[in-house]
Structure prediction request, 1188 residues.
Amino acid sequence: MKIGFLGLGNMGGPMAHNLLKAGHELTVFDLSAAAVANLVEAGASAAPSIAALAGSDVEMIITMLPAAQHVKGVYLGEDGLLAKVAPEVRLIDSSTIDPMSAREVATAAAAKGNRMIDAPVSGGTGGAAAGTLTFMVGGEQADFDAALPVLQAMGKNIVYCGPSGNGQVAKVANNMLLGISMIGAAEAMNLGVSLGMDPKVLAGIINTSSGRCWSTDTYNPYPGVLDNAPASRGYTGGFGTDLMLKDLGLATEAAKQARQPVVLGALAQQLYQTFSGQGNGGLDFSAIIKMYNGAIE
Amino acid sequence: MKIGFLGLGNMGGPMAHNLLKAGHELTVFDLSAAAVANLVEAGASAAPSIAALAGSDVEMIITMLPAAQHVKGVYLGEDGLLAKVAPEVRLIDSSTIDPMSAREVATAAAAKGNRMIDAPVSGGTGGAAAGTLTFMVGGEQADFDAALPVLQAMGKNIVYCGPSGNGQVAKVANNMLLGISMIGAAEAMNLGVSLGMDPKVLAGIINTSSGRCWSTDTYNPYPGVLDNAPASRGYTGGFGTDLMLKDLGLATEAAKQARQPVVLGALAQQLYQTFSGQGNGGLDFSAIIKMYNGAIE
Amino acid sequence: MKIGFLGLGNMGGPMAHNLLKAGHELTVFDLSAAAVANLVEAGASAAPSIAALAGSDVEMIITMLPAAQHVKGVYLGEDGLLAKVAPEVRLIDSSTIDPMSAREVATAAAAKGNRMIDAPVSGGTGGAAAGTLTFMVGGEQADFDAALPVLQAMGKNIVYCGPSGNGQVAKVANNMLLGISMIGAAEAMNLGVSLGMDPKVLAGIINTSSGRCWSTDTYNPYPGVLDNAPASRGYTGGFGTDLMLKDLGLATEAAKQARQPVVLGALAQQLYQTFSGQGNGGLDFSAIIKMYNGAIE
Amino acid sequence: MKIGFLGLGNMGGPMAHNLLKAGHELTVFDLSAAAVANLVEAGASAAPSIAALAGSDVEMIITMLPAAQHVKGVYLGEDGLLAKVAPEVRLIDSSTIDPMSAREVATAAAAKGNRMIDAPVSGGTGGAAAGTLTFMVGGEQADFDAALPVLQAMGKNIVYCGPSGNGQVAKVANNMLLGISMIGAAEAMNLGVSLGMDPKVLAGIINTSSGRCWSTDTYNPYPGVLDNAPASRGYTGGFGTDLMLKDLGLATEAAKQARQPVVLGALAQQLYQTFSGQGNGGLDFSAIIKMYNGAIE
Prediction:
């Protein structure tokens, strides 16, 4: 398929590479010349501008951008995608943004006659490189079906979440719960160990009991409990504290707009913000356990 | 085995019955004559006082009491167990109390020459009746081994947690995380649904993602997601809000004594307290989701 | 002075009336014909559009709008104020919005050659009617000086807060602290009374001690402590819960952008959101004490 | 008057000295020989034991002890005060403990025929030395009247709070609000300054607005705002973080027993605990602002 790809950063770059590998024909755009050159070397064509990419003969355009303001700029701007793209081109935004903005852009696309889905991902840069991302997709079922073969070239778990914006809703709800659970796991592990328990024994009990969660059985924040968790390699790699902070910001913003309370979600955001402000924004988010006990390495 | 059993309430009563069923010889005591009569009818002998039970020819005494003050009273009182019991009698306290109190009583027992373990349970009254409780055991490994056959008559998952008090530590740490996760699950489910997602679809996505936890995949607080969860039967049965409140009180108290923060744990306690104060203490603890959306039945 | 006034709602309406009373010549605009008619009857001229008001011969334009999106629309829109206004016209925005948006608009005004200050108010609709508002002003000192006589026709406490946006900063910081203090006061009063103290005695002690704050000595949330506080008239009148919620939303948003934690501020926002979601958004914000004790009327 | 004084620590020592200065005849007891010697040198007599002090010919006994367990031990122990003291001796406990414990001891005293009041203080070691403490007194009005001249030798603000235990209630409620307000003040000051405001200007605005509180106008946590606040001398002196932590522990414990939520109170406790755990327990409690911005000295 002829596909346009816009946004070749840490996530978008490897995703575009996987599309090439799967045999798709790619036209790409990014503000970074180096990022573009990297894809061109792998076989992609470069578009000189967003408008040029929009005006080319692609059948589908995928965007992967940092935040809602960039998505709105790229799609809704005067020389943006919607101003230039033909109505039969399918649009996929894989950026993680708030559901309301996603719906606003999708509504504008529909008004121009374009089919659009939101398809944020989880799985990090590792998943992007390996082609094992999870895609959470919002939009019409038929548009999900049409996009499925393309998304499968970049991920292995492609989930339909319902109408437009619901991909973002699913991601924001899941990640808010993740951010809360991780702090809960950190508090429970640290409390138990400070009261005399061996961390592996404690994790073993929790993992077969009602406190069990992904943050204890797959990504335990206590060093040494799981060999392959960031906690066992100095909290490097993994999912950065500042990325979790961004997602919690989206969750609390969405909650504010929906006039729903998210008490623990908001508190979790503040704790990660405190931890980030102490210079730890680049560490894996499970490092939040260090706020509880400075002695944990 | 000749066993003394002290405390025949909602939990202790069925536990004692299971010991009788397993063929043990039981001497029992409780302040409630009805509770005692019920066990006597099933084949137990009644002791007229704590001191009498302590002075009888039992080989092991099990206690199941509401709170630390009762445990201290029963074990350390002037006519209490330790004052009267022979040194070869093994002691098991299955009450849920704070780890410090558990260790204080165990130390006093050791000074008298008695082997003692703490063995709090999870699984509720249903598990007590069915003999499927989980026991979390603190004490010496040899004493755990000696108690194992007796505990297996009352439960199916008997876990050794390390030195004295660690059974309580494990329970308190697990249940604090549970209390946090449940509110996190309630917030995430309510946020997602208020933003337009179907609750079953959302739960399905979370349960295969990083937000996965027992509170979403086994005990989801949103009505209709899981047929057999309390949420699908009006939040009746299950684990009462006031019981969760008691456990969170133990967790924050233990944290205070250990001088460790439990930020989300303390906030969770306050939210359940607020919910209980609004007249909901008897509902299953997953009903906390109603604080987030009055429209949830 | 010839003044343009844009936004004649619950606050803007009475403010405009006070300008007329002080002898200023007023040209007004609002989407509500009734609001415009009301001012015209009192002696103002009506402008048919924002552009027309901007193009008239006023020396100063004051805006009083609900939220940042309206302020941006009115100032930065294609037919907005900045597109049409002469460079010598002074601009005053009295809306309460986030500091970043205020600075963005002021920067755009400066680029057009217009002097602009942000001047949000406190004092509510009562203060607006009585002309006793507090104005918190951000911008250049000279522009503050030039606006002072006009602001004094609408308020009695006009405070210079420093460079552009600082009026909003001062308001947001003060009101966040107010929102926190009020919940703190509610908790302390409710705790003390539930433990057996007379509410007036308790308030008297706090008000001469280190817990003293405006929320205890001027606006006590406990019914009957202060005769003229909303608590003593069923929490009617005063400063609505949903208005406090809006200000806390601005505070946490500003904090997010500044990457600073506001832990209690964010929690306060969530508690007011919970209270509002239970149907209490129209009550004075001190009614939050009812979340702590349903028995408080 | 002939007075017995028990507990000659950082607070009790200087209080006892002030009683001597006022001309009272003192018999003292403390576990520290040095503390006793210090008072003897100043003219007091030393009692060899609690029982001896209780059995001497004093008309009144004042106790100043670290925590409830010590108060219970001293009053209720086998050789404690109540076992040995004559019924006409008046008892005053100035320790800061939870209200329930205070009432338990007062009830035991009443059963022995002794008049007892609880009279915790605020004002710190500086106030103890200067004789300017505030006493919050619970008990019968007549007993308050009888104690007043003695208390006035040690303090200048002696407040009657109602029935037994209410002195403790007043203190706990006030200090919980103080602990909350201080964090609120820290967040508001730090937010405002990070957004570009001068700290003195911001404090000035808050102090004439609805955010005003003792923590902003008398004890501002931002360095340089108030010359004589601990913030302006590196957070030395003042009221230590660990002392605030103790009082918040009493407040949340009292709330738990009363089954009342104190959401911000509990969160404040956790934040001070986190701050203390990072090695700052000895700093004045206003240093909590450093958790918000490491750049604040």
